[in-house]
Amino acid sequence: METPDDKKLVNICLEELCNKLGLQKTSNLSQSDYEFICYHIEEKTPVNISLSTIKRIFEGKYERLPQLATLDAIAQLAGYTGWQEFKSVKLRENFRQSPTDKTVSKPSKKTKKVNKKMLVPLTLLISMAAILVFYLSYTKSNGNESESVGVSVSVSDKETAPIPEVEFSARKAVDSGLPNTVIFSYNIDHIEADSFFIQQSWDKRRRVKIEKNNYTQTDIYYEPGSYKAKIIANDSVLKEIDVVINSEKWVAFTAVKMQDVPIYYDLSSSAGDSIMRISVDQMKAEGLEPDTNQQIFHFYTNYSDGFKKFRNDFRFKTRIRLNPLNKAPCYIAAINIMASDGMIAVPVINSGCTSQIGLMISDVNVDGKKNDLSSFGIEADQWYDLEIRTENNKASVFINGSLAFEQEYTVPTGFIAGISLASNGLLEVDYVSLSDSMGVAGYHEEFDINIK
C-alpha cells in the first residue's frame, strides 16, 4: 500500500538522479533537462517514459505512485539495480535525513566504465545541463548511438512476433557540405503497427511520421557527423543504418537553444590573422546579442575522410584562447575527437568551475564531482597549448606542456571520423594538428584565408 513516505522516497530518488546527471535541483529543471532525462532513461533502461510523464513525476503531479517499471527506470538511472534496492538502501539509511548531510569521503580518483553502446553524451562531458543537451546533439560519433530494440510488433495475421526484417536505406543529395538532404528509402507494407517513423539520430525531435504504400522520405541534416538513423514502428526500432555527413573542411556554426537550425559563419572573413574564430560582429550580423543571457553555443567541426588514417594511437595538438560570451558564470570549451568505436572529449573551463566538468576517454567517464580536475582550469583571454596522446589504450592530456591527466581504457577508439571544438564563449583556435604515435605529422591546419 502506498504511504506518504513513498512520495518522499521518489523525490529523493529524483534528486540523486539529477545529481548523477549533473543537473540542477529538481525544482529548477528546464524543458531541455526533461528531454535529456528521457533520452538517458531510453538509452540505459528497457523502458520508454514520455516527456509528459517525466515532467508530471518531477513536479509531483500524481495521485498514485508511478508504475513499478517507471520507478525501476528512475532508480537505475540514479545508480541502483531497481526501485526495491533503492528503497531498501534508503530505509536503512533513514531516508528522512537530507542526502546533503551524508559524510563526505576523502577525495579519490573515481572513474566509471561506459557501455560502448552508450558512449554518448551523456556522459558528464559538460555538466551544466543546457550545454550538455547541445553537446550531445553535436558530438555523436559513429557507433555510439543506440536505442533499445525489443518491443514486438504485429506482422501479417500474427498478433505479436519478433521484429521483422525491413527495407531501409539512405543516400545523400551531395557527397559533402551543409546542409545536406538525405533520401531515405523504405518498405513497411508487410508490418502491422499503429504508427511508423523515421528518426535521423538519437534525438526524438528529429522524428518524422511515415506511411505505408509510400517508399521515400527526405530529411535535412544541418551539422556534420556520424549518425544512426532509425526506422520505428510504434516505439520499437526496426532497423538502424549509418548516415555520415562529411564536411571535408572546417565548419563554424552557432546553436541557439530551442532552435533546430544552426547559424553558419564564413570562416574566411575572420582568417586574416590565421586564427579560426567567430567574431562578435558576425554574431550581431545574425541577430545574436553576445551580452545577454541567451544560451548560445559555438562549434568548429570537421568531418573528413582524411582523418581515417589515424587509428587508435595518435597525437592531437591545438592552441586555443577562450573569452566569456555573456553573463554565464562558467565559460567552457571542449575538444571532441569522434572515432569509429569510441570518443575522447576533453574540456577546459574557468578555474572556479572545474567541479562542473567531466572527461570521456573511450569507455571511461571521469566525473569532476568525484575527481580533482583542477588542472583543467583556465583563465580568460590567455592562450593555451593542449595535447592529447593515445597509445596502447592509455590517454594522456597535456596543457602548456605539463601532464594534466592520464587514463587507461579498454575499448580502442578505432579510426578518427571527425573533430569538434565546442564552447559557450568566444573560442579562438590558432592551429590543429594530428600525427601518429611517433609524432610524425599527417594533418596540420593553421587556418589561413582558405580554410581546409
Number of helices: 7
Strand residues, percent: 35-45%
Low-confidence stretches: 95-108, 114-161
What share of residues is helical? 10-25%
CATH topology of the largest domain, what is it called? Answer: Jelly Rolls
- End-to-end distance: 65 Å
Return the structural class.
alpha+beta
The largest sheet is:
10 strands, mixed
* Number of structural units classed as domains: 3
Examine the secondary-structure arrangement and name the CATH architecture of the largest domain: Sandwich
Shape: globular
Give me the count of strands. 27
So what's the CATH class of the largest domain? Mainly Beta
Structure description:
There is one protein chain. Helices cover 17% and strands 35% of the residues. The protein is an alpha+beta fold. The protein has three domains: 101 residues; 223 residues, Jelly Rolls, CATH 2.60.120.200; 93 residues, Immunoglobulin-like (Sandwich). The strands form five sheets. Strands 1, 12, 13, 15, 17, 18, 19, 20, 21 and 25 form a ten-stranded mixed β-sheet that branches. Strands 14, 16, 22, 23, 24, 26 and 27 form a seven-stranded antiparallel β-sheet that branches. A four-stranded antiparallel β-sheet has the order 8-7-10-11, with no helix packed on it. Helix 1 packs parallel to helix 4. The longest helix has 18 residues.
